[in-house]
Amino acid sequence: MPGTVVIGLGSPLMGDDGLGLAALAALEEGWAFDPPPIFLDGGTWGMNLLPDIEDAGRLLLLDAVAMGRSPGTVIALGRDDLPRFFSIKLSPHQVDLREVLALAELRGTLPEDTVVLGLQPDRVELTTELSDIVRNAIPHLVDAAVGQLTAWGHVRAPGTAVACTS
To answer: Of 104, 98, 132, which Cα lies nearest the Cα of 116?
Structure first.
């Protein structure tokens, strides 16, 4: 069976929009799993992500998700909740991602197990820094990702990080 693919999304040049990449880095550096998922820096690749998405057995996307909640709130979206064409825009680079997901679905290759985990951004503006509230919420997003990977059968390897307790 094809493996689990974890893709961090966003632009590190647009403040909190880069939080998916920060969470991916924290997950990849602080955790080890058996079997190991495939970690990909998806940045703002758009359609270039299609082969990776279509080859995945399970897909976990980490991203800034603007849903009008309090900044730093962890947001989880299942496959049926993902935006499609003509839906509301949830992140600044989502037009490309929305098209990729819609195309994969049209082709019958979007993994049944597809989840988006993200944080409500505070600031999306030209800066390379995450806002304090989002930076402080990254461990909670990583915990959510670890929980999802564990639910999908990825066992935390001995000696790796422990869940955030705050």
So the answer is: 98
Per 3-state DSSP, what percentage of the chain is helix, strand, and coil (rounded to 5)? 35, 20, 40
Classified as helix, coil or strand, 61 is: strand
Q: How far apart are CA 162 and CA 160, in angstroms?
A: 7
Whether 121 contacts 90, CB under 8 Å: no
pTM, two decimals, is: 0.89
Query: Which whole-number Å values give the CA distances from 122 to 10, 12, 35, 153, in the listed order?
Result: 14, 14, 35, 33
Nearest to 46 by CA among 14, 11, 16: 11
Alpha-carbon distance 22 to 8, whole Å?
A: 8
Are the C-beta atoms of residues 75 and 67 closer than 8 Å to each other?
Answer: yes
Domain boundaries, the chain: 4-156
Cα 126 to chain centroid distance, Å, stands at: 21
Kindly report, residue by residue over 37-93, the tens digit of the pLDDT. 999 999 878 889 999 999 999 999 999 999 999 999 999 999 988 865 434 444 554
Q: What is 4-156's CATH number?
A: 3.40.50.1450
Cβ contact 65:116 at 8 Å? yes
